[in-house]
Amino acid sequence: MTAIATDPPMLERRYARLGVVLIAPTILVFSLVIVYPLLAAIYLSLFSIYTPTLQGEFVGLDNYAKLLTQKAFWSSLGTTLIWTVGTLSLQILAGVGLALLLHQNIWFRSLARSLVLFPYFLSTVVAVLVWRWLFNDLYGALNHGLMQLGVIDMPLDWLGSMPNAMIGVILVGAWKYFPFVVIAVLARLQTIPEHLYEAARIDGAGPVSRFFDVTLPQLRSVLTVIILLRAIWDFKEFDLLYLLTGGGPVTSTQTLSLLVYQEAFGLNRMGQAAAYSVGMMLVMLVFMILYIRRTGRES
């Protein structure tokens, strides 16, 4: 009996069965919240469906043909790319800069590290309400401050005209999500060996040279992952944009996420909305593949 119990092939089979049992709940949840909605979206995209009744007829690839020829999709894709690149660039610049500052031995470092997380943990609804008040063209604090400084002569309509609306949503998006960059970069800064900086100082390198020759190369791997992750998350952003401008003025800040919502619940074309969402997923797939390949090389 002892020999049978300790037989390597039998132990491997027992461990394999145990592994299946342990991972089964995760696979079940993954299937329910990811695989099933994905397959359902692809299935719906093949039909012309009226949203209130979810009834319609099979149209095959007609929805995708319309997607490729409709100006709304390409316009929203361009807006999405502008939003993603704009807010991501500011997140990286602000996040890296503040992480470098908080890595220094300053007296308020512990308090500052706690406060910098505030925007990231703040509810999106609350953050948008505050920013809408700041952007208000009649009594907003932003216009009042700029007029007091003499930067502008009259109040600006930040969320009701272009390009102010796009600038506004990019600023709010960068403010809301740059703490993620700070956390990740600060964690990497604390693991950089100090002897690299000592060697650079001995060679006569100043602060700028040390940043480009030592710090930036050490941050390259983590910055690549941060950029890919934040690009995926920003590309599919919905709630902040919907609450801040709703895609307006007209459709000037309408991203693909807002277009899908408008098609499904504004125009009641669920099938076309599903086709838009699949097209959006295919664009995001590029970022996902890059992220998976990058993390695979790191491993």
Structural write-up:
This protein is mainly α and 299 residues long. It has two domains: 2-44, no CATH class; 71-298, Orthogonal Bundle (MetI-like fold). 74% of the residues lie in helices and 3% in strands. Strand 1 (47-50) and strand 2 (55-58) form a beta hairpin. Helix 9 (164-189) packs across helix 11 and helix 10 crosses helix 11. The chain is flat and about 75 Å long.
Map the helices and strands.
Layout (H helix, E strand, L loop, with lengths): L1 H4 L2 H37 L2 E4 L4 E4 L3 H8 L1 H32 L6 H7 L2 H4 L2 H12 L5 H8 L15 H26 L4 H9 L4 H29 L3 H6 L11 H11 L3 H29 L1
Helix pairs in contact: 2-14, 3-14, 4-9, 4-11, 9-11, 10-11, 11-14, 13-14
